[in-house]
Design a protein that fits this description.
mainly alpha; 138 residues
Length: 138
């Protein structure tokens, strides 16, 4: 129920509130898993963490380093999750694209720029080299 409410809040433009709700949902699901309750809790936590990562990226409310740490935490819980690996790789690709546009100028379409605008604002020039080094190590 909390995840559905968070999705509705997101659609209404209540971004901060939806992010807070989904973070609380993740904490509750993690507590259930710590107590030994499994069932759907693991899949729900994975889904919630994937959605949170997407929302944090779209809203620009976290730094690039924090987003990478978020995806790495998800991967520590779900090392075999293709969705988690794909999401992290997609985010690294976004970082690479933003840095490349910063270094070489923008020759791509406006669609690409709008998709990366919130990411661009969360990357400092000093941290972009470190992020690119991490990306290239993959």
């Amino acid at each position: 129920v909390t995840m559905e409410r968070a999705k509705l809040q997101w659609l209404r433009g209540e971004k901060q509130r939806s992010i807070s709700d989904i973070e609380r949902c993740i904490l509750a699901l993690s507590a259930q898993l710590d107590r030994g309750s499994h069932g759907d809790a693991r899949a729900l936590r994975r889904k919630a963490m994937l959605r949170l990562g997407k929302w944090l990226q779209e809203s620009g409310q976290r730094s690039a380093e924090e987003l990478i740490d978020h995806y790495k935490l998800l991967l520590s819980h779900e090392p075999n999750s293709e969705d988690a690996h794909f999401s992290l790789a997609k985010y690294y690709d976004t970082l690479y694209t933003v840095e490349r546009e910063r270094q070489f100028g923008s020759s791509s379409s406006s669609t690409s720029m709008s998709a990366s605008s919130s990411t661009s604002s969360s990357i400092s020039s000093s941290s972009s080299k470190l992020l690119m080094a991490r990306y290239l190590e993959l």
